[in-house]
Amino acid sequence: MREMINMIVVLTALTAFSGGLLAAVKSGTEVRIENQILKFQKAPAIKEIFPEVTNDPLADRFTIKTEDIELQIFPGLLPDGSKAIIFETKGSAFGGPIGLMVGINLSTDKIVEVRVTTHAETPGIGSRAKDDLDFVSQFSELGMDTNFALKGDGGVIDAMSGATVTSKGLCIAAIQAKELYLKLKPEIVIQMK
Question: What is the CB-side half-sphere exposure of residue 153 using CA atoms within 13 A?
Answer without folding.
Answer: 15
